[in-house]
Design goal:
With about 260 residues, the chain is an alpha/beta fold. It is built from eight helices and seven strands; from the N terminus they run βαβαβαβαβαβαααβ. The protein has a seven-stranded parallel β-sheet with strand order 3-2-1-4-5-6-7, sandwiched between helices. The radius of gyration is 18 Å and the shape is globular.
Length: about 260
């Protein structure tokens, strides 16, 4: 019999679903049969919100989209409330939303530091707390999206790398304090083919050349896809990963294994 991951009748709450990694995660969970509650900064009637809903429903799964600024506690509460109102439960939380704050340790201002902290660290903790009672009822799973910058970084990526490192500590704390009812894992993608990473390439005079230089740094000689990240999330949320908890998995195409010179 072929190995199959079937998440039909599961409800997954995913933050940041309107583009990039979040959209890929939502797509793969929908393909596994799960119903998806997603959020983003765009309005419900925006084209990107409609694309999210359509992509989920194409897989014959149910979709809910809630406009949410994850740094606002009251909007996180509304997101959870609407998810429960629509689906009645939360089986899996994928706390994904975040953006790059690349300022450098000397140039970073207090305001930038706090914005980065609120979005890339505190929001994950706040949402996890709101989902906790529902996840406990379902013997649920939390997946926290961090970054390869949690393990190794480069100059100029402060304070983003600081919060991404801190998320590995959040994963450990939730796993040991909320288990066994809730299993918590982290996933740390490296270079993934997203609009955000293309913006990074475009910041160089030769964007195509920088892209090829980056690809060459990876032993697999490619950049990851959002669907690959989503497939990892589906596996980590499944019964086949039931012994995985408290660990953050690095998904970087082998880049961190190779000394760069």
């Amino acid at each position: 019999m072929a190995l199959e991951i079937n998440l039909k009748n599961k409800t997954v709450l995913i933050t940041g679903v309107t583009s990039g990694i979040g959209a890929g995660i939502a797509k793969m969970f929908a393909r596994a049969g799960a119903d998806i509650a997603g959020c983003g900064r765009h309005s419900r009637d925006s084209d990107v919100a409609k694309r999210f809903t359509e992509s989920v429903e194409e897989c014959r799964a149910k979709a809910l989209y809630v406009q949410t600024n994850v740094t606002k506690a009251e909007q996180l509460q509304q997101l959870v409330d609407e998810t429960i109102s629509r689906f009645g439960k939360i089986d899996i939380l994928v706390s994904n939303a975040g953006i790059n704050f690349f300022e450098g340790a000397a140039d970073c201002t207090e305001e930038e530091w706090m914005k980065n902290h609120d979005l890339n660290l505190a929001a994950h903790w706040r949402l996890a707390k709101l989902c906790k009672p529902y996840l406990q009822k379902q013997q649920g799973v939390i997946i926290i999206m961090t970054s390869n910058h949690a393990f190794a970084t480069i100059p100029g990526c402060f304070p983003y790398n600081v919060t991404k490192t801190a998320l590995t500590g959040l994963v450990r704390s939730l796993a040991i304090e909320w288990g066994p009812e809730i299993r918590t894992v982290g996933l740390a993608p490296g270079f993934i083919d997203t609009p955000g990473n293309q913006t990074w390439f475009n910041s160089f005079a030769d964007a195509a050349g920088e892209r090829q230089r980056t690809i060459a740094l990876h032993p697999v000689k490619k950049i990851g896809t959002t669907e690959e990240v989503g497939a990892w999330c589906v596996f980590l949320a499944s019964e086949y990963a039931s012994f995985a908890s408290g660990t953050t998995y690095l998904l970087d195409g082998g880049r961190s294994a190779l000394l760069q010179d």
